[in-house]
Amino acid sequence: MKNPLSVLQEYWKYPEFRPLQAEIVQSVLDKYDTLAILPTGGGKSICYQVPILCLEGIGLVISPLIALIQDQVEQLLRRNIPAASIHSGLTQIEIEIILRECQAGKYRFLYCSPERLQSTKFIEKLKYLPISIIAVDEAHCISHWGYDFRPSYLKIADIRPFFPYAPVIALTASATPKVQQDITDKLAFKSNYKHFQKSFARDNLRYAALQEDNKLAKMLEIIQKVRGTGIVYGRTRKEVEEVFKMLKEMNLPVTYYHAGLSVLQREKTQQEWIKGEKKIIVATNAFGMGIDKPDVRYVIHYSPPADMEAYYQEAGRAGRDGLTSYAVILYRHNDLDVLKKWISSRFPDITTIKQAYQDINIFYQVPYYEYPPNEQVILDIDAIVQKFNQYSVPVLYEIIKQLEAEGYFTYVEKELIYSKVAFLHNLEDIYTFMVHHPKYDAILKTLFRLLGGTALEGRQQSIEESKVAQLAKLSIETVYMQLNELHKLNVIEYLRSTDKPFLRWLMPRVPPEDFVINAERYQNRKKWYLDKLEAMLNYVQNTTQCRMEYISQYFGEMNTKPCGKCDVCVGRHKKTLNQNLFDRIKLEVMLLVAQQPLSYDEVIKKINTGNPQQREQVLRYLIDNNEVKLSPDLKISL
Alpha-carbon distance 309 to 165, whole Å? Predict the structure, then answer.
């Protein structure tokens, strides 16, 4: 076994581990199942990559987003660490080649999406590989109570018996205690598993939630004062485009990003922002996963998000370099009402769900008791909504998630399927073509370099147009144009990439009389969403509790001290009370909680001195300064 610190220094060039990383790595090397809760930007990947490199064999890494998988594989390859990934963008031949190469010891890492574990062919090949560690990224996806439940994650426990000596490490940035328990249960953790959790507090972040009639003016004030790179999140595509236009009209270096843009547009937009060509990006929550830009100085939510988990992830994209940064929510009072209605509208009655199931099958021309071709289709929610004119996009999305929970479909989130190229002629004929068409010289030579001889045999090979552009020293637009031209000239076969989501049938289509849905499960899901929304709205409207403390307590961390830097803490410091009034309220608090522990609200109601705001001010001061204790069940005592 290699020394973990030596591996870190050799491949990552870091002098030492970050806090908790070394302990997590050692836990995995000691063969303990391990749950690691590390905030966004906390270095989760190191926690499984280092122990995999310390051991013989292959590390199996299960991750939900293909873009994240491809980013991780590219980073490992740049460090001369052999890694491969299996996803829907590969042909069956390509998958078999990778698995054979894994068995031959060519790779140290094999990445796959959880949906891959639903393939019996894949499992049959997988169980003969020398898997040393199973790493589950974004592990909250395994929980019904997680904010992005993926039923395919439940298959992970099924492969564990094939690798009895391989520990499982589950990693996530945000999980409530309920979700954490669900993770360890659903992954069949052994009873002696280890649990590591880094504080959810981010000392360099300044949180604020500001009620503003003129949100645009306040946003501009923040942008001008803070300067640097920033993200502005909008709740809908329409809002994103409106905010972008307003900022662009003011000659600010801004771009925008949402799922309605083409692959080329999104890639271009993202690169402009990452490289600093555009300082501001306005985006929906489709943007940010896998982005590790360290110098983001502010994240502004132009409208309140729907839940704390998503907000913590998005706000956490600010200040990863450890420097002071800002996470601000802007809202008008009616924004909160709109958000409540929007969430409630996502849950139609069960009759509508039953009809939507049949409509989806009709759209894809699936006969009763049969599957569609290949058992899956590219999901075009906009087209289905337009054809039947009965559902909004968010409502149909929620219906599909419910049908997934019932076992009818699997929804595969926006897998990026890379473009594919195959040469249609031999090398000599292609060189002759290049002599007569010199403008294609750079791109064809680059394709030879990237793909080698297999593409000349007529076998399709995956390509990334951005990589072709970089190596050929051409613009990305030119690359797309020339690939299309070469395809039309019958020099190559070029299949353009797609990143639309997939819908995979888990059972044949059933007629209406045989369709069953669990009403209790559906109502529980609705209540769960509304509870999460309520927690988010409480955060936004809260004027008495430190925001960092609120976030930490939401995720089960009860001992966080007030940050002293959020808008609530700063506002509290600005307020002053008459010393005599302060002392009288403090005395009443002490006498009350000396008799028995009381909840926060009970203490406020039982005090007779001062108004409720003054009582809260004193009580928060006493809690913040440890003059009274706040227990994990939120009771106040001496």
Answer: 33
Token reading at 132: 């040393």
With respect to CATH, is domain 575-637 assigned 1.10.3470?
no
d(CA 612, CA 203): 30
What average pLDDT does the segment 570-592 reach? 78
Q: Which CATH number fits domain 205-331: 3.40.30.10, 3.40.50.1700, 3.40.50.1220, 3.40.50.300?
A: 3.40.50.300
Contact at 8 Å (CB) between 476 and 465? yes
Give the whole-angstrom CA distance, residue 37 versus residue 530: 25
Please answer whether residues 29 and 1 qualify as being in contact, where contact means their C-beta atoms are separated by less than 8 angstroms.
Answer: yes
What is the CATH number that goes with domain 4-197? Answer: 3.40.50.300
Comparing 161-170, 245-254, 516-525, which segment has the lowest mean pLDDT?
Answer: 516-525
43: helix, coil or strand?
A: coil
Structure tokens at 48: 């499984």
Find out whether 493 and 463 touch, Cβ atoms under 8 Å: no
pLDDT band for position 493 (50/70/90)?
A: confident
Give the whole-angstrom CA distance, residue 473 versus residue 624. Answer: 58
**Beta-strand relationship, 492-495 and 461-463:** unpaired
Domain-wise residue ranges, the chain: 4-197, 205-331, 341-415+500-529, 419-495, 575-637
Give dist(CA 145, CA 554) in Å, integer.
Answer: 14
The pair of three-digit structure tokens given for residue 213, joined into one six-digit string: 């009639």
Average pLDDT over residues 92-97: 82
Calpha distance 397→179 (Å, rounded) = 23
Through-space distance between the first and last CA atoms of the chain, rounded to whole angstroms: 51
Task: Please provide the average confidence, as pLDDT, over all residues in the chain.
Answer: 88
CA–CA–CA angle 261, 359, 386 (5° rounding): 35
Half-sphere exposure of 157 toward its Cβ, with a 13 Å CA cutoff? 14
Q: Map tokens 């803490």 to a residue.
A: 569
Q: Which residues pair with 210 in a beta bridge?
A: 330
- State whether the Cα torsion 138-143-149-155 is positive or negative: positive
pLDDT given for residue 49 in this prediction = 97
Residue 91's pLDDT band, with cuts at 50, 70 and 90, is: low
Query: How far does CA 181 lie from the centroid of its chain?
Result: 20
Using DSSP, state whether 135 is helix, strand or coil: strand
Give the distance from CA 110 to its chain's centroid. 20
CA angle 310, 312, 315 (to 5 degrees): 105
* Pairing state between β 409-412 and 502-505: antiparallel
- Averaged pLDDT for residues 549-559: 90
d(CA 380, CA 572): 50
Q: What is the pLDDT of residue 634?
A: 64
What's the Rg (C-alpha) of the chain? 27
Give dist(CA 281, CA 266) in Å, integer.
11
Instruction: Find the angle CA(84)-CA(100)-CA(50) to the nearest 5 degrees.
Output: 40
Location of structure tokens 């403090």:
586
CA-to-CA dists, residue 421 to 184, 377, 428, 434, 458, angstroms: 43, 22, 18, 17, 9
Under DSSP, the state recorded for 417 is B
Mean per-residue pLDDT, 520-536: 86
CATH 1.10.10 fits domain 341-415+500-529: yes
Q: Quick check: pTM over 0.90?
A: no
